[in-house]
UniProtKB/TrEMBL annotation:
Coiled coil: none
Species this protein is from: Paenibacillus spongiae
Name of this chain's protein: histidine kinase
Full-sequence portion shown in this chain: 172 to 427 of 427
Source species taxonomy: Bacteria, Bacillati, Bacillota, Bacilli, Bacillales
Record GO terms (molecular function): kinase activity
EC code: 2.7.13.3
Domain Histidine kinase: 41-256
UniProtKB keywords: ATP-binding, Kinase, Membrane, Nucleotide-binding, Phosphoprotein, Transferase, Transmembrane, Transmembrane helix, Two-component regulatory system
Catalytic activity: ATP + protein L-histidine = ADP + protein N-phospho-L-histidine
Transmembrane annotation, as ranges: 1-21
Keyword Transmembrane found: yes
Enzyme class name: transferase
Amino acid sequence: ILLFGGSIGLFAAVAAGFYLANRSLIPIRRSLEKQQQFVSDASHELRTPLAVIQAHTELLLRHPDHTIEQDSKHISNVLQEARRMSKLVGGLLTLARTDSNQLELERKPVQFDRIVQESVNKMQMLAEVKDIILHTEIDSPIPMEADEERLHQLLVTVLDNAVKYTPEGGVVRIICNKLAHSVQLEVEDTGVGIAPDDLPHVFDRFYRGDKARTRQEGGTGLGLAIAKWIVERHGGRIRLESKPLIGTRVYISLPL
Ligand code: ADP
C-alpha cells in the first residue's frame, strides 16, 4: 500500500511539474509566435514593392532603344516603390529595436509647442499642394522633459496621416492645450474617416484600412504602431475617433 501510495504521489508531483512548466512557457511561446508573425508580415510587405520594381525593370530592359522620356513612367514607378521600401525598412528597424528594448528615449528639456509648430511647418508644403488649410491653436510656452526627435516623428506621423487621408480643399485643425500636469493635443481632419470595423486595429502593425488608398498614398501601416510606442514610453495616451466621410480626430495626452 505504501509503495502504491508513494507512486501515486510521485506521479501527481511529476504531472503538476509538467503542468506548471507548460504554463510558465505560455508567455514565451506567445512572444515567439508574435515575432514569427512580425517576420512573416514584414517579408510579405517587402515582397510587393520588390515585385513591382522587378516588373518595371524588366520592361525597361526589353526596350533598350527607348529614351528616358519614353520610359519615365516605369522609372518613376521604380523610384516610388524604392522610397516605399526605404520607409518600410526604417519602420521595421525601429519596431525591431523597440521589441528588443534597444530603443530608449533620450529625454531632455524641450518646448513642446515649438516641436508642434515645427512639425506643422514641415507639413505646410504637402498641405498646400492639396489646398488643405492647417489651422493651429497652440498654447505657449509648454516646457517638458522629452525625446525631441521621437516627438517630431510622432507629430509628423499624425499630421501626415491627416493630410494624406483628407481630400483636396479640406481642413486640418491642430489644437494644443497646456493643462496643470499634462499637455493635450488634438489633430482633427475633414478626411475620409475610418470604418468602425477598422478603428480598433489602426495601431496594429501593418494594418491599413483601405488597402488600395493607403498603398496609393505610400502608407506602410507602421506609422501609428510606432506613434503609440512613442506616446506610451513618454507615459502618455493616444486614441482615435473617426466618422467615415466626415473625418478623424486624434487625441494625444502627455505628462509634463
Ligand atoms: P499608413 O502608413 O498606412 O498610413 P498608419 O499606421 O499611420 O499606416 O495608419 C494605419 C491606418 O489607419 C491607415 O492605413 C488608415 O487606414 C488609417 N488612418 C490613420 N490615420 C487616419 C486619418 N487621419 N484618416 C483616415 N484614416 C486614417
